[in-house]
TrEMBL record:
It comes from the Bacteria. It comes from Kineosporia babensis. PROSITE patterns: TAT. The keyword Signal applies. This is VCBS repeat-containing protein.
């Protein structure tokens, strides 16, 4: 027996050519012309970027710390992470990082609290986490979990650092190492067949235990602020869960994408209303994140057939006519 003990509805646009549908774009916001305003905006953006990476509601894969999601894949054939920093003209490729093995699971997170995403992998064969802290470039490891667990990293104690966490379907228990105290937390929440969907659903700055149950389409959320649960039917078997902060209110929204009809189904927590958007086609994979840096989750898909990243930007309500290509056959998209 292994001991788990810590150490150390839309008008169809040109996107139809991509197999997509989209809403008509709204006018782009006016750009600031004042130097003083620009300086203030830059400071505000820096603060927003730091908050966004550490806020469980808007946690993103942001390896360069600019507050925007980066295009990132893991290539099992070479055991390497490949990252392109965001999507604009200033995008650049970061050096490839060798880590893990072919069958390991990517576990991105800010484990050192420096506001940048760290590269990490989990070994499903022995439960070992291996990660490289961006603040000092050191490779570290910890034994946490066992075969059959689902990884669920998040900031469960609200200290701005990602905690090591797994959900064990065999006993319905979450096992967490709180980075603030280096102590073990356990919580019975869930059952066999559930899918982990951690996020900050109550907006208190801490990751909540959350699950989606494909058998009945119900989300089961345990709010960390009150200890009370919120259950809601939203989805069906075959949907891909895609929780995120789509309305920018600081709380994770229930969201999923349905491959059978290419529709995203989101419940905005700010208004408790549903938002449906056609975006994608069968075979795509959800990679939701904040790719434009506006503090809201963008509807985003990775298309393995041509390795394109299809982003519907929340800031402009439009999409790129020339979606970026990042990855190769066999790559695993990370978000």
């Amino acid at each position: 027996m292994r001991i788990h003990r810590p150490f150390t509805r839309a008008t169809v646009l040109a996107g139809a050519a991509l197999g997509l549908s989209a809403l008509v774009a709204s006018p782009a916001p006016a750009l600031a012309s004042s130097a003083a305003h620009a300086s203030g905006a830059a400071l505000a953006q820096d603060a927003l970027s730091a908050k966004r990476l550490t806020n469980p509601a808007t946690a993103i894969v942001d390896r360069d710390g600019d507050g925007k999601s980066d295009l990132t894949t893991y290539r099992p054939s070479t055991r390497t992470w490949h990252t392109r920093t965001n999507i604009g003209n200033q995008a650049k490729a970061l050096p490839a990082v060798v880590i893990g093995q072919k069958d390991h699971v990517p576990v991105p997170g800010d484990y050192d609290g420096d506001k940048k995403t760290d590269v990490g992998m989990w070994n499903p064969n022995d439960g070992t986490w291996t990660y490289i802290t961006s603040s000092d470039g050191r490779t570290k490891s910890i034994d946490w979990g066992t075969t059959g667990d689902q990884v669920a990293p998040g900031d469960y104690d609200g200290d701005g650092r990602t905690d090591f966490a797994v959900f064990r379907p065999s006993d319905g228990t979450w096992y967490i190492i709180a980075s603030k105290t280096n102590s073990q937390l356990t919580k019975r929440w869930g059952t066999k067949g559930d899918q982990v969907a951690p996020g900050d659903y109550d907006g208190d700055g801490r990751t909540d235990h959350a699950l989606f149950r494909p058998s009945d389409g119900v989300w089961y959320v345990l709010n960390s602020s009150t200890g009370k649960n919120t259950n809601r039917q939203w989805g069906t078997k075959g949907d891909q869960v895609a929780p995120g902060d789509y309305d920018g209110d600081g709380r994770t929204d229930l969201a999923l994408w349905r491959p059978s009809d290419g529709v995203w189904y989101v419940i905005n927590s700010s208004t408790n209303t549903a938002q449906n958007r056609y975006w994608g086609t069968k075979g795509d994979q959800v990679v939701q994140g904040d790719y434009d840096g506006d503090g809201r989750t963008d509807h985003t898909l990775f298309r393995p057939s041509n390795n394109t990243w299809l982003v519907f930007y929340s800031s402009t309500e439009t999409y790129s006519q020339n979606p970026p290509v990042w990855g190769t056959t066999g790559d695993v998209p990370i978000h």
